[in-house]
Amino acid sequence: MSEERRKIMRVLSGETLTPPPLWLMRQAGRYLPEYRETRTRAGSFLELCYTPEYAVEVTLQPIRRYGFDAAILFSDILVIPDALKRNVRYTEGHGPEMDPIDETGIRALNGEGVVEYLAPVMETVRRLRGELPEETTLLGFCGAPWTVATYMIAGHGTSDQAPARLFAYRHPKAFEHLLMLLADISADYLLAQIDAGADAVQIFDSWAGVLGETEFEAFAVKPVARIIASIKARRPQARIIAFAKGAGYLLKTYRQKTGADAIGLDWSVPLAFARELQQDGPVQGNLDPMRVVAGGKALSDGIDNILQQLGHGPLIFNLGHGITPQADPSNVAALVERVRGWKG
Ligand SMILES: Cc1c2[nH]c(c1CCC(=O)O)Cc1[nH]c(c(CCC(=O)O)c1C)Cc1[nH]c(c(CCC(=O)O)c1C)Cc1[nH]c(c(C)c1CCC(=O)O)C2
């Protein structure tokens, strides 16, 4: 089957499909009992990411259950800091942690060997393309430099990324160097995923929403534009989704400035504004993940609203952020059924 038959690839090229194709951010994860089982077997979270046999298995789990139109490679955005020897660890109940980096540490960073270190991820992609149904799009991904940098500087997740914002004001040169280094590494990493068989890739800028206007340009737009330009210069056919969570009105020029084919929308984006953004190309989103937890009318009303307002243009139906561990798998089945049953 040619790539053009894959629905998500068709929408990424600008087609409107009725019903829209769908996948969910974090579709492989703790809400699924089979994920928890494999996770326990793997031992550590990084072991799960770096063992192709396990990573392939958990990537396929939501495809088997729900037949989503895309599978997303199972990995994490923090494998890049791990490859940069930042001592990344995931401890139960703490979220990810790593050694916080300072100016001296940034100057000492060396991006060589990162893609080689991440060879197991590319092996996972290769095996996935062989095992997935022909019609299923395979998505690769990475974190955007700003979001990855927030974890590298604080050494852990924070609610407002104050440590990274402060560091950027105090040490603008070192911070710029960090972002550009991460951009160049990320471009090579995504290119390697594409060459291993990923149909398209998504760049997650989960923390774009804490940035002011000037900083959004410098820390979110500029590095993501650099990644996309670098990939497209080498693989002009590559398709790229950029997701800047919380960017609000700043999304108005985000697609055009970054060169992304599609833009991801979180649930705070008003649907009238989303429709405006859709005039320039495909959008992806944007159901509140809590509607999936709530189920029932909250779920069906939220889905219907998005379909009615965005379903007549190029849309990839998705959540506005990752599905949460407390979501009931049967609500996900109801979501899929409702989207698939939409007649336009
Ligand atoms: C910021 C970020 C991270 N990782 C990611 C982001 C960007 C998207 C977002 O904002 O959610 C992206 C990510 N992380 C994971 C995927 C896998 C693919 C998929 O979407 O199914 C993807 C695309 C697996 C994961 N990554 C992580 C888990 C849970 C860990 C576990 O199983 O113990 C999964 C399934 C761990 C992780 N990894 C990260 C955090 C903050 C955490 C802890 C929070 C949590 O526990 O949910 C960093």
TrEMBL record:
Recorded superkingdom: Bacteria
Site positions for Transition state stabilizer: D76
InterPro entries on file: UROD/MetE-like_sf, Uroporphyrinogen_deCO2ase_HemE, Uroporphyrinogen_deCOase
EC number: 4.1.1.37
GO molecular function: uroporphyrinogen decarboxylase activity
Record-annotated Uroporphyrinogen decarboxylase (URO-D) domain positions: 21-30, 139-155
Catalyzed reaction equations: uroporphyrinogen III + 4 H(+) = coproporphyrinogen III + 4 CO2
The keyword Transmembrane is annotated on this UniProt entry: no
Localization in the cell: Cytoplasm
Binding-site positions, substrate: R26, Q27, A28, G29, R30, D76, Y151, S206, H321
PROSITE patterns assigned: UROD_1 (PS00906), UROD_2 (PS00907)
Entry keyword set: Cytoplasm, Decarboxylase, Lyase, Porphyrin biosynthesis
Tagged with keyword Lipid biosynthesis: no
Top-tier EC class: lyase
Pathway field: Porphyrin-containing compound metabolism; protoporphyrin-IX biosynthesis; coproporphyrinogen-III from 5-aminolevulinate: step 4/4
Family listed: Belongs to the uroporphyrinogen decarboxylase family.
Subunit structure: Homodimer.
NCBIfam families given in the database record: hemE
Its job: Catalyzes the decarboxylation of four acetate groups of uroporphyrinogen-III to yield coproporphyrinogen-III.
Protein name (database record): Uroporphyrinogen decarboxylase
Organism: Rhizobium calliandrae
Taxonomic lineage of the native organism: Bacteria, Pseudomonadati, Pseudomonadota, Alphaproteobacteria, Hyphomicrobiales
Name of encoding gene: hemE
